[in-house]
Amino acid sequence: xxxxxxxxxxxxxxxxxxxxxxxxxxxxxxxxxxxxxxxxxxxxxxxxxxxxxxxxxxxxxxxxxxxxxxxxxxxxxxxxxxxxxxxxxxxxxxxxxxxxxxxxxxxxxxxxxxxxxxxxx
Length: 121
Fold this sequence. Notes:
By secondary structure, the chain is of the alpha/beta class. The chain has five helices and five strands, in the order βαβαβαβαβα.
């Protein structure tokens, strides 16, 4: 069973993601801040991390670098959630260690398709 962490300061985004992705094949855990997510990752690294590209407490590139620097046998797939296509932000995130991005707000078909594209589902 895969573990997916959604890191977003919007409880609505986290709840929608949990409702869409949660099930017998995936456990979805939530973090409201980047620093909470880093603490959670250091205790138990998830398989997949979807992180808001505009967290109020930490820059997304710094968040990705922190996660990538952690000693863990699990090397999570990381996707950045953006509100618009921003090539510069996508490239900075990829250079830091992210595998891709998704756009929000999202609906069930969009999120599931993006997870398939990222080979996470």
